Structures are given as C-alpha cells and as structure tokens.
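Ticket #4471: structure export looks truncated?
Reporter: QA, pipeline team
Priority: medium

Steps to reproduce: submit the single chain below to the structure queue and open the exported record.
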Amino acid sequence: MCLDFSDTQMGVLTGPAMSIMTVIFALPLGWLADRYSRTRILTVGLCIWSTATFLSAYINKFWELAALRVLLGLGAATVNPTTASLVVDYFSEEYQSLVLSILVSMVFLGVDIGLISAVISQNFGWRIVYTVLGGFGIGMAPIVGLTVWDPYIKREINAKTEQKKNYSVLEVIKHIFKEKYMIMVFISCAIRFTGGYSLGVWMQVFYRRVFGLTPTQITAWLAVIIPVCGMSGAYTGGFLADYLHKKIRGGKAILVTISCFLGLLTSIPAFLYPDYKLSFAFLALSFFTAEMWNGPALSIVCDQAKPGMVSSVTAIFYSIGSIGSVGPFILGFLIEQFKIIPPFHHANNAGYDPTYPMLIMVSGNYFLSFVGFCVASILMNNSTTETFCGYLTDYRNLPKNS
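Actual output as written to the record:
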C-alpha cells in the first residue's frame, strides 16, 4: 500500500515529529548519563527506536507514522549524550576533535543504508525494509549492552576513587552559557543544523523533480558522495581543528567558520547548474567542505565541560541542534508556497520545484552560521577563561582496570 503524503506532511515526519522528543528529553537523559551507566541508557534507547522502526512497517495513516516517529525520537535522544561522552573518556584531549568527527561521521553510513533501503523498497516494498531494519536493531541491543565499556561505571565498581561531582541541570546550564562566545556557538550550530537537515531530507526530491532522475540513479550518485565526501570531510575537519587548536587560540572555531563559508560557496552552484553531473560534482565538494564542522563544534562545547557534566553538555548541544530539524518542514512549506513547476513534471513525478526554497534554507543558513561562527571566534579569542580539557584528560587516562 502506497501512502500519499503532501510536502508539508513529509516535512513534519522527517523533521519535528522525531526531533521534538530529542529537544525535550535529551537534557534529562544527559543528566542521567552523567550519573548512571551510559551503556544501559544507550541499550534501552536502541530497543525503543528499533521497536518504533519495526512497528512503522504496519501503519496505514499519517498520524500513526507520526506517533511512531515521535517514539523513535525518544529512543534516538539517548545516542548523542552517551556516545559522545564515552568517546571523550576513551581518547586523549589532543585528538578530541578528530575522534568526535569520526563518531559523528557515522551518520553518513546510516544515510547510505537509507539510500540503499530506498532502492530495495522499490522492488520489495518499504514495509519489508522497516521490518528488517527494526528487527536488526532489536537484535543488536543485547550485543551493545554486553560489549560497550563504560569507564565511569567500571571505576566505581573496582576502585571507588576519583569520583566526579554530580551537577544539577541548572548548574550545567549556568556554567556552559556564562561565556558570550558559547551562546554564539550554540546559536550558530542551530542555524547550521537547519541547513544540513534541509539538504539531507530534500536533496533526493531535488534531483528527481529538477533533473528527472530515477530513484536508482539518484541513489547511485548519493551512495558514493555522502559517505566518501562526508566522512573524508569530517576526518579532515577534525584533524585540522586539533592542529589549529595547538597553534591558535580559538583554532577549532576558526575551522568551523571556514567550513561554513566553503560549504556556502559550493552549495549554490550545486542547486543552480543545469547539468546534473556538474550539480553532483559541486554537491560532493559541498559535502566535503561543509561537513568539516560538526566534530570540532562539539569539541568546543566539550572543552567547556567539567568532569561530571560532559553528557549533559553534549545533550544541550544536540537539543539546540535539533531545533534545526524544523528546516525540512519550513522547506516543504516554502515549496508549496512558491508553486514553481519543475522541468520534469508529470503524473509519476508530481510536486513543485524545490530549487529556490533550497537555496534559502540550505545556502542561506550556511551563510548565517558562517557569520555566527565568525562572531564566536572573535569573542573566543578575546576571552580569558581557560577550558577544562585538562580535567577531562585526567578522567580519560585512568587505567581501565583501576
């Protein structure tokens, strides 16, 4: 059974329906992750979002799918606070931007799986895909619970030493926002996430409506561009941010600023070139340059966290970032308001041209985030406050069996 949703409804499903739970529950879950087993919290979240995915195979109405997307968002809200703080504990601060970039780049593998799943669904049906993916996640939950090591929990069991202080949510918020440059970092991140969400959700629609490409053709291009360019860009950004951090005060923020600017320059021709091959070429450049930002930006936030608040601070970062998930909804709304007939408009390829709305929501937000990070870099360079990287390193360097 094919479900026929409008552009606005698709924007709701791919944006707010899922992210609303992340905004609401990420900080409470981060607060719990700073006190209890992050592995157990992550495992429970994996069970929740995998069950929601599995049940999505059996829905027939918009509101049913919307409700399951909300449940999926609740489970997914456990991921960022737990995994980012675990990675911060596993590795030296010297390589923090790089390892966080590697962590966040894993989303590109997930996107690739989604693209391949879309092709499979063309032949076997989307319900089969949801059933398989949901079942796989449920099966992975016990493996995650038994194999992922949490250094805080192991230390408490074996040594009862080096206990970290427990901070209230209010104490975390006051600490992280006491510097003006951190306020600008969070605002700029929300804007940058808005552009990224908009591009991720609507780029397949763009190439189908504007160039008349089939889902299989689009997937063949994106399945290479997204993981190769996105992941290599993330690794490059993480490496350069760590290098600049050693040489220049505010080096990580400078790298993020450059990433937003280069992403802006390469995204515009990706939307405007009339040849789809050149469009994909600029999209590849845009993915490489624009995706250098995430790991270093998260590292800036983690640098400000005292021991015992890394999960909570990470939760704040992604909660504010989740505001950007309204981007697909706004973009869908703009598409319906502009009502531009695309070049390849026919019964099997209905819908309006998304080109100019995408320029507004993607390139426009890249520009605004560039300006915001410029301001943050200046404020950071003028700040006299020291970060808490050294404290974090002390926690990471504890022996595993201490």
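Status: closed, not a bug. The export was complete when the record was re-opened. Leaving a note from the reviewer for reference: Confidence is low (pLDDT under 50) at residues 154-162, 388-402.
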